[in-house]
């Protein structure tokens, strides 16, 4: 709990000003407008500002303050914070800019501020932010142009301007907030702290965020996973593309991780990702006012056939079903609706439908057990009584536990109706498609919040062996490993193909005899990168004769093609047939750490990029979904009468890789390519592995 | 030209009424509001309505009327039209509903109306429509709630309610129209007629349409192709999904073609397809007011870093580039912008930027030759002078030939600025992403309109041979063909693999000797559908011995597995190796006719549905694009050092198939599967063909 941050008994404004247009004045005005606690302006050049006694420093103010809002120039901020600490201030909001976002000097200054805050046991919002708002306590410690309306949404944003725009947008639509936090550079408090704060905040039902990055990826996932079971978390994450993430780093100095990692992390922690600010707002409205539906069967009611069709299309695209009504529902509709109406979903009450017909249709359809939610569409046609229809909708909405989302489509002629819907907190979307997408998000969340988190499995592995092997390699300055990589997999219970490096013909023959035929033979030489091109690979060797002939011709071929290559021997490998090649990879994301990748081998990965991702450590449920979510998954379940592959063994291997890369952060990159997957029940075998180690 | 439809000297309203709330009154009111010609109410029960002399029938009205608007009940419409014809009316607008959309009886009535109209040489809009509007002539022959503002957009819609919503939406944003047409059931006049009408209409610069289907697909493509070179055509086509298209048929009785066919047809005729009504409106605004940019290099100017990042992301997703400014531009910006500004694209003028800074930045950036268009973003921050900024934007916009699209993001605090932008016809989008998508559409159209239509090639083929072969098959009641299919391909210059059906071992040996080895042998039997399962396929036969052994063992295998199968012989085929399998298919779309399909064979088609479409007959330019647009195209150009496939031969085959299926509508379905494509320069060979014929 961030004690006294949102409901302090007193607030000091360090850098308060009486000059209109200055931030120090705007903050003071905002506090004066709705905050009932003590307000203490701090400014060495004034005795009084706006009727309030003013002090040169916070140390001079009798009784100090629980919260300090800092608006002095960046270079003066460390000193101001130091004084806050000495004066016993609990929390500070640093609005001043000129820190990490401004370059190296600013970064130093920011680190200094964070240190001071920590030394004194204070917590800090910002720097480089707009401030914070709490509508319950009446606190507006920001230079926002207006106070937020009261509501149940808590929003945080890494962009002050997006705070401003959102507040203004919401105000015009009657959308209210509980807490509003401009995160700024997040030198101390970040989204993670506020997620925890909002989890148990009784005034918060919906959490929304504009983020350019997260401060601590794994922590974010852990917290979001927990909080999202109680309240929906809707996030827009910008800087998704190369150009976007370049712009991010010059904005708040945030280092953006890969968009794939964010997608995986959000999905694993049940965070709802909005694709645009508009969608963020659309979803905020739906979640803040409507119940979560029990299922995905939706009814569309419209007075305009065309709008109904557009909504029906949108439902299919969004993965929603159109309800099939009970026969009794249809009969009831038939009894009152005009003959030309469409009684089946979408229900068209026709262009001249009056409010009572709307009300009857809504009520009848809401009563049908096959209906989980309603999309209500209205075009302001010649006979349409917009105002009365909106009132009927509001009345029906008050008596149902199913969500209703509206789209009254028009301009001036729908304004009055829209105002009524706004007043009753029934979201109205300018066009049907947006209502449908919002409904789908409500449905998705209904599934998400029921989902029990599955702990990553902990296999009984030989961690010590791997640990000493890696330590040894790193201390010898080796960044990649040879056959020892196979031992690492074995230590973690991942089946690997029998493989031996041998130096002589006799050694080769013995090795093959031991492992059994058929075998594959490859030349071993640090000088040869494309083995196939120099005759350095032989497959399908069935017996000792084959092996001897292959060994001798290979040696002569290699000598002929690359006379100067130093050959250290050959590698023999048991040949595996009848399997399908898949790839399991891992690299480390700057924000979330180990990012696992899965896909089918060959062109599917190379050309189609048909791969899926998850952040490790990760449970078996997510890994199952990861495997089944690639587009080429049917190839694994078996097409054209083929027998299915051993998918369980892929998932098991992914679980073990998840554990391995989580146990050893020094493994920077990792790839099993290919993992040969045999038919169901026969497991899988790692055929080759690539592993890159980090420094000491 | 639809003479006197939009500017008649006189308009009769058949079914005029003085009763408020009736359509016959609404139409009369609308005419009285802005139309300066003669208005003639027709109603047998009144002598005068709203001060106008009223007549029992149009035949009683002295001088008749050039246009008649019909609002009487459906069953009375044929008689009313008959009288219009006798009275010399040129055009009719039938608003009355109860026709094709209402079932079989309605369909009959509609056909009857179309016949009457034709007999009398009249043209008809509707039935089941809202009416038509022409702002130039002041004609509002509709029951829309209000007259459209004057503007340069002409819109047609198959849904009357979407007309109403659009008019109301546009009115609130100062968006004006030239012509507004509610198409209704399109019993006579359709989108094709109005496209031609708008092509040369000097008041129309942009054509927009909501369609549930097109009346004549090939004609639509021909007309749209021509018109889109002069004016952008933006279409939203609903009923894209199964549920949506079911809803379409109960709305206007339109039979929806496949969405793939619409996509192909729109793309081939340079129609811009909007994904939602919202996008239709967004694009209408951009096209109606902004010039078409010369290229895709866009500058973003913002007073809010966060908005800039969102726009940068959106640019990348939309395929736009961020301009790299000239060094002189950067220097100039540096000279006046505050030090903390970002001078590189996106340009952040900072939250406290005043109008003069905005103006300076816009002007400087517009001057840079690397900038083709500007996206201007504004958040209403504490110091932001929205009104003055909007005025500066308007001024700069008036002096440039580059498009500027704005996104002032907020609610009440941006209203004043938005009103100024609306007044100056500078589109303002509520969120940055929509401005970016609209800019991309402007850029796309710039490329489209320059594109010269390439005539489908006409190869010298043996059409008569195919014609008689097909005629023969059909008259014998055959729906599929055997080896004759290969002859059809040969007649159209498509290489086919050498294939022979033979009855005896000796015949087989002779055939193989003639075609050369290696060969493939397949059992021929109408009773065996899965040849491989009964040992009925042998590949890679290298010489006469192989063939003899294969023949004998195949016969005994088949006898053992399927003792009752009647075997008529074997098929021998030259074996082709070293190629890649592709598929060329065709089926007939209800709206557009022959729809060609192309894709790589096997799992790529079966699992990934990685295919592309085009409507035949079609030129080589589109077919080239069709081949290169599949996701797996790199497999054809060669990956992993493979040599490229003979892509030119695929395109050539597609051209010839296009001609074949256009020449013979009796070919209902057609598939070459596989077409074996050899390395570049070596052509391709059809290995198998499936062909279904239609009835007599």
TrEMBL record, chains A, B:
EC identifiers of the protein: 6.2.1.13
Substrates-to-products reaction catalysed: acetate + ATP + CoA = acetyl-CoA + ADP + phosphate
Q: Does the keyword Ligase apply?
A: yes
Q: Which UniProt keywords apply?
A: ATP-binding, Ligase, Nucleotide-binding
Leader peptide range in chain numbering: none
Among the GO molecular function terms of this UniProt record, one is: metal ion binding
| Superkingdom of origin organism | Archaea
Which residue ranges does the record assign to the ATP-grasp domain? Answer: 486-522
> What SUPFAM superfamilies does this protein's entry cite?
Glutathione synthetase ATP-binding domain-like (SSF56059), NAD(P)-binding Rossmann-fold domains (SSF51735), Succinyl-CoA synthetase domains (SSF52210)
Q: Which Gene3D superfamilies match?
A: ATP-grasp fold, A domain (3.30.1490.20), ATP-grasp fold, B domain (3.30.470.20), NAD(P)-binding Rossmann-like Domain (3.40.50.720), Succinyl-CoA synthetase domains (3.40.50.261)
Q: What class of enzyme is it?
A: ligase
Indicate what this protein is called per its UniProt record.
acetate--CoA ligase (ADP-forming)
Organism expressing this protein natively: Methanococcoides burtonii (strain DSM 6242 / NBRC 107633 / OCM 468 / ACE-M)
